[in-house]
Amino acid sequence: MQFTSTRNKNLNVSFSKAVRDCLPEDGGVFVPSAIEDLRRWIYYIDEKTSFSSIAGSLTSALIKDEFSPIICETIATNAFPFEPVVKQLDNNLFLMELYHGYTGYHKDFGISYLCSYLEYTLELNGGKAVFLDYSNGSLGALLAKILRGKKNLKAVLVYKKGNVRGISDSDFIWNGGNILPVEMEGSEFEIKSQLSKVFGDKEFVSKYGLTVANTTNVCRLLGQICFYPYSFAQIKHKIDGDIYYAMDSGNYGTLIAGLYSWRFALPLSGFVVPSTPSLRCNAGGIPEVSDSIVDVSMRGSANPIVPANIERLEDFFDKNQLMMRSFVYPVDISEKQREIAAKELFMKYGVYADSETASAYAAVKERSDNIFDDEGSIVLMANAHPSFSSDYCRHVIGEVPQMPEHIKETLKPVLLNKEVIATAEQLKSIIQQYCN
Predict the structure, then answer these.
(1) Is 263:256 a contact under the CB 8 Å cutoff?
(2) How far is it, in rounded angstroms, from Cα 7 to Cα 324?
């Protein structure tokens, strides 16, 4: 599979280069330039096919020109000792729980895949990589778990003071581990601005092999693409009509991963999402991306710290609003509609829903006449374990979901007793000290 840029279609690079470089030099983001038709493989898989097997086959099909099937299978097998859980709620409604990984978030899948891919390919080809990311706590706990024992990967994670959690003493880089946590003064926006300054020093980035673990990196998206063939395999013998997916918008990584799945020839008919200022319907009922009023050539460069999946969405539809209308269904959702949806999920199906899952289900209810009249089915995607939203569940339904012990471990606060920094230059000095 080859990749190009959202801002330069003459660019054509390999998957490995797109992952290593993270962003093209033209200021855009990497997107697939050509996607294989995997129709035969898709119809072969079924409910007995494991998630890791699907991920291995998909990896092999997409990057077979770079790595052998054995390497591709090894990457997937080591990335996914866990898998999503797909539950049938009624004849036409399914729930896909994406929170059965290490820390209870759907990003566990994409990041675990990214780390496995980098570790094995760096071992084969030589080199090192260092993640440099902002963390509100969960990312650090996840990378601490994933990077244990890895030889070629380290992570520099920058937190607001007092937000470090879920990391053991043995994970710290000064104790021989792979995690370098740094506390920084300022708001999230201010801290991310300092990180962006570090990435602006291209020579420094290249020297230390800096990259990011968010969905700016296309490898993260490939891990999330696997959600779709897996869920299709789980339900295809239980349905007769079209398949739709409903999800919270987030940073649109899961949505764009689903659209790429459709390009692989996966049979799905659309995506229902709550509206946001970035993606909503205009007065004529046609979905539109607000950023599209400014041509990409007139915008600033993509920021590696802030995923630019909305630009990937624009690129996918080539600003064709009518084509977008055939696949993406943004729905305005009120707080009252969200609460009604959360209560219904619990009363009818025993499902605890956070506000994001409830929003997606509320959007489904608003579009249900268009979907179910044609015997269509919905896969509702739950991104985070509901126990993270205990206060919301208590307020809306009067009950609280139990938090698994392995998730509790990721929330334990950690005292660093290290200097709190304030600038990009201080951060670069720390990277130089520990990541040589």
Answers:
(1) no
(2) 20
Report the side by side order of strands in the sheet with 2-5: 8-14, 2-5, 30-32
HEC profile for the chain?
CEEEECCEEEEEEEHHHHHHHCCCCCCCCEEECCCCCCHHHHHHCCCCCCHHHHHHHHHHHHCCCCCCHHHHHHHHHHHCCCCCEEEEEECCEEEEECCCCCCCECHHHHHHHHHHHHHHHHHHHCCCEEEEEECCCHHHHHHHHHCCCCCCEEEEEEEECCCCECCCHHHEHHHCCCEEEEEECCCHHHHHHHHHHHHHCHHHHHHHCEECCCCCCHHHHHHHHCHHHHHHHHHCCCCCCCEEEECCCCCCHHHHHHHHHHHCCCCCCEEEEECCCCEEECCCCCEEEHHHHCCHHHCCCCCCCCCCHHHHHHHHHCCCHHHHHCCEEEECCCHHHHHHHHHHHHHHHCCCCCHHHHHHHHHHHHHHHHHHCCCCEEEEEECECHHHHHHHHHHHHCCCCCCCHHHHHHCCECCCCCCCECCHHHHHHHHHHHCC
pTM over 0.85: yes
For 5, left (φ over 0), alpha (ψ -120 to 50), or beta? beta
CB atoms within 10 A of CB 426: 15
Amino acid at 391: D
Q: What is the pLDDT along the chain (436 residues), one digit of tens a residue?
A: 789 999 998 999 988 888 888 898 888 999 988 777 787 788 888 899 999 999 998 888 888 888 888 888 899 999 999 999 999 999 899 999 999 999 999 999 999 999 999 999 898 888 889 999 999 889 999 999 999 999 999 999 999 998 999 999 999 999 999 999 999 999 999 999 999 999 999 999 999 999 999 999 999 988 899 999 999 999 999 988 889 999 998 888 999 999 998 888 888 889 999 998 888 888 777 878 877 776 777 778 888 898 888 889 888 888 666 777 888 899 999 999 999 999 999 999 999 999 999 999 999 998 877 776 677 899 999 999 999 999 999 999 999 999 999 999 999 999 988 999 999 999 999 999 988 7
Residue 169's contacts (CB-CB under 8 Å, 6 or more residues apart) are 175
Q: Are 75 and 222 in contact (CB under 8 A)?
A: no
Q: At what angle do helices 253-263 and 218-225 cross, to 10 degrees?
A: 70
